[in-house]
Automatic annotation (TrEMBL):
CDD domains: ABC_DR_subfamily_A. PROSITE patterns: ABC_TRANSPORTER_2. Keywords: ATP-binding, Nucleotide-binding. InterPro entries: AAA+_ATPase, ABC_transporter-like_ATP-bd, P-loop_NTPase. GO terms for molecular function: ATP binding; ATP hydrolysis activity. It holds the Pfam family ABC_tran. It comes from the Bacteria. This is ABC transporter ATP-binding protein. Transmembrane segments: none annotated. Residues 5-230 form the ABC transporter domain. The lineage of its organism: Bacteria, Bacillati, Bacillota, Clostridia, Peptostreptococcales. The keyword Chloroplast does not apply. Gene3D superfamilies: P-loop containing nucleotide triphosphate hydrolases.
Amino acid sequence: MELAIEIKNVSHSFGEEVICDNISIGFETNKIYGLLGKNGTGKTTLINIIANQLLCDMGEVKIFGKTPTEDIKVLDGLCIVREKEFYEQEYKVKDMFKSYSYFYENYDHKLQEKLCKIFEINPKLVYKKLSRGMKTLVSNIIGICSNAPITIFDEPTIGLDAVNRQEFYNILLDSYVNKKRTIIISTHLIDEVEELLEKVVIIKDGRVEVDEYIDIVKEKSYYITGRRDDLSKISILKDKTPTKSFGSNLVYSYYGDISDEDLELIEGLDIDLDRMSLQDMFINMNKKGEALYE
Ligand SMILES: Nc1ncnc2c1ncn2[C@@H]1O[C@H](COP(=O)(O)OP(=O)(O)OP(=O)(O)O)[C@@H](O)[C@H]1O
């Protein structure tokens, strides 16, 4: 297993606030990752550290086996796509494409033309006159056409309508199938990326909560429903708070393995075991569950 990015024991704080707390992740080559986390969990901070745009307090990041200090050229293999890029606002879109294309040795100009037609972007327009969604599309087109060995999309569908969101992900997948590379999509809109992802990394409270193949994540995500007294016999639910209750029935959301003893009990008792979607798993994992009113 070759690693495109190796994050080793990275910690970073802004003032007193710990954002990354000893994070270690290996992003493999030629896989599509979802980097998931609630607002403010540090996804962008981590991306900035990967891109060497922010120096972490501790730990190190290797790109294809080397830190940027060892070889600054490793950063050439990286394309970061985000809304707040430092684009020259007065440039025409076509000039922007041209200047960005120089950074990427495998930039696909033909695909760029096709994508402009599909997304109805007029390359002759001045960038600052584009709508918010169109600006996002320009960034995404650069990201797709870069063919960079590592492409990171930070919230790539901000401002896009439902049609363009779907179209963007379809095109991204086609492009990936045509040329395999490491793609990381940082988002909290999980439903729309679920089908695309091969691996999922979930960040919570500055730590890596999940780093797993999506099929395994799905296999380990359950809703467990039954009567309160039956469910009290299931050991994995001890000390857990139910997600919902209706009458004498409770629903628990559970992520993890289920022991054979618990499975036997579940089969023997009147308990339902249902799969939980990635989105629901993410929401339940991050739920605070505090009452709004006393
Ligand atoms: N330059 C900075 N100085 C101080 N605090 C910062 C700075 N950049 C980010 N933060 C703080 O670090 C935390 C993580 O921010 P970050 O932008 O990395 O989160 P995120 O997971 O990308 O969030 P979102 O999903 O909302 O974009 C936030 O509390 C944010 O206020």
